[in-house]
Design brief:
With 152 residues, the protein is α+β, with helices and mostly antiparallel strands. The chain has five helices and six strands. It has a three-stranded antiparallel β-sheet, with no helix packed on it. Strands 5-4-6 form a three-stranded mixed β-sheet.
Amino acid sequence: MQCPFCRCPDTRVIDSRVVEDGAAVRRRRECEACAKRFTTTEHAQLRLPLVVKKDGARQTFDIEKIRGGLQKALEKRPVTAEQLEQAVESVLANVRELGEAEVPGVSIGDFVMNELQKLDGVAYVRFASVYREFKDVDEFLAAVKSAMDKGK
């Protein structure tokens, strides 16, 4: 690590600490040349995959779209902001665990539906009705029955 004061390439680590709930490491460093101290923070750089839409188009993964979809489905439902964020993080973790450069949008939608089914049956049916593009009432009723069966 180069010293930000004198640009000397020789610095040494004095102290290291895990921060941000294990998501980063903070290091206190000292320059070998000018003896000034500074702090660096290290984060893992994880590339998120491209999302392959139904029409074959590819777009960058956007966690805000996941959050927005969950919020819309959970609107006026008894789910806390913390539960919402846990669901968002769970979907993100599922996408990362795939380890693929490209992920079908359908897979991401399934991850979202799985989280909604755990959180709230009404929100699950709301999301499913748009996501699954039900063609008739029978498909809608099947989703409701599925939500009720999982809720027992």
